[in-house]
Fold this protein.
Amino acid sequence: MANEGRYNSAMTLAPPSAKPLYGYRKYWAHRLTPAPVLPMSREEMDDLGWDACDVILVTGDAYVDHPSFGMAIVGRFLESQGFRVGIIAQPDWRSTRDFEALGQPNLFFGVTAGNMDSMVNRYTADRRMRSDDAYTANGEGGKRPDRSVIVYSNRVREAFGGVPVVIGGIEASLRRIAHWDYWSEKVRRSVLLDAKADLLVFGNGERQIAEIAHRLAAGEAIRRITDVRGTAFRRRADMQAPEGGWIEVDSTHLDMPGPVGPMPDPYQMEPEQPAKGESPPSEDVQVVRFVRDVPAKDRDRSVIRLPGFEAVRDDPILYAHASRILHVESNPGNARPLVQRHHDVDVWINPPPVPLETGELDAVYELPYTRQPHPAYGDANIPAYEMIRFSVAIQRGCFGGCTFCSITEHEGRIIQSRSEASVLREVEEIRDRVPGFTGVISDLGGPTANMYRLACKDKTIESACRRPSCVYPAICPNLDTNHQPLIGLYRKARELPGVKKVLIASGVRYDLANESPEYVRELAMHHTGGYLKIAPEALSEGPLAAMMKPGMGTYYRFKELFDRYSKEAGKEQYLIPYFIAAHPGTTDEDMLELALWLKSNDFRADQVQAFLPGPMATATAMYHSGVSPLRRVSAASEPLYIPKGARQRRVHKAFLRYHDPANWPILRQALTDMGRADLIGSGKGQLVPAEPRDPGRSGRGSPRKGQGARPFRTQHTRPGRKRK
């Protein structure tokens, strides 16, 4: 693939390079831009003097011209490249009418579900439909369909059949290969196929979308654009897409999954005859060679074939294996292309995009955003905008690698940081231009609060590394954990005229913070508003290992520092720990231990988070397969306990809210079944009060009809551990 990391004479990977983000000659329409706001109607296009849009972006979110909204970034970035960009926000998907509102674009439609996956946006972890939507005017629910990328793309096809369709955003990004779908409880095909799209852009998309737009503008056919990093495309299985003699590597040879039972060979390379009306492969497209070993000198011509859709659909062990390979091949410095067969179609996935340089990221965030919702929304309240309108993103990416999280899978683990000067300019922009600013910056952060400018000490090591996390099971000795640049940024931001306070609302990675007590001091003394939220997520070794999170000793060390510096500042401040219920690897015994810890520390959570198996997450592969892909998987892998079923998930959530009388009946039954009825009572060391003796009593602890009567089967020992 283009710009693939190459082996040098010392046989080590050289960091990949990329064309500068602003290295393209601007498209001719740059003389007509920038627009005060990207148009959402034909009337706005007429006011701008546009006869057509070059690119039309379709999104499931309300259009807010703010750099925290993905479509605003993509739209303004394309505009900076000289293209005329229109926005179709939250169209009525029941017909093609809204999709035709701006006419036919000259180049392509870009389609996204929005800032959130549409299924996560619409449903709770218990699969209950949400009544509201934070990304919609007045928080109104029901403004987007299930699986929005598929629905929107198909409507675009109906309206304008010959126009290229490029899908992207987090929903497309995390569904680029065959994936377990929690809502239908089955393995689904790559969304590229169901959406009938021409290209899929994964991860942050500026590099990809710039190259795609300029190549289409130069007259290149979309089917020829197969060498852009950070994209996926489809080809008939007998028409291997890229030019050149690709060497195919069997993923099961790289990481043998072990005996999985007889099945059709997913690597069969028998050529098929072209379908009627379809052209045969051109002479410059060479059939892929299939091998098991690739010499180092040929690595940049190798592609890894994952088990096909039908194979991973039918065998959870192969699914876990494919997930493992996908995550291993995720470092832009050494990742190879992947290919996965779906019946008679191959989905090719190019290596991830090269991360943006600081100057490039600065330029993206300093585009001429209005930082407000489109005027069409009038005075309507958009909750997601209200939450972030006084915040500033200072970085992208996360090297934590938490198995339940989609940040690393989408944005990558290499931190991309803005310059200090750029961040301070944006703070001043908020101060001077955003209505309602009272002097408080609500956040300086990103996916995490304190990974700003943290990176591997050696770029060559970084390019060769395949670790899924830089901080688990311990902080890598090659990781630079210097927090001084971030401390300096905080100090300068709060010293700006007109800025009264700078709060930190992004999650603090406390294992990293412990490496810099001075950072914790700065945080506690100047940037905490009484409460600081952090996320231990679990207490016991089993779930922590499955999550790839640090042990509680790290939490206690951070708490000690935070409490000390809060006291030194004369402030009464508290840590608010977040925990996840029903995560793979969590037994009922683990949740009981956590509930007792919460009670002993007098924590009473108002809201709790239950594990939601999002597409492509490592924890989702655990949930589906019952084994951990953090190690080589096989049919003989040690099983991982997976809490499943609505009742058991309710019990795990109830343990986190042990103090809620509504949960007492189900907890009494669970404790009885676990042989821990000694924890039922009003004693100091007991968890829930006993059931009132008078069945007619209407006290808050009385069970409702039918509650507490059915025994609850529990497994409170991990596989391989003897029961006590």
User: Anything to note?
Assistant: The CA atoms of residues 249 and 304 lie 5 Å apart. The chain has 24 helices and 24 strands.
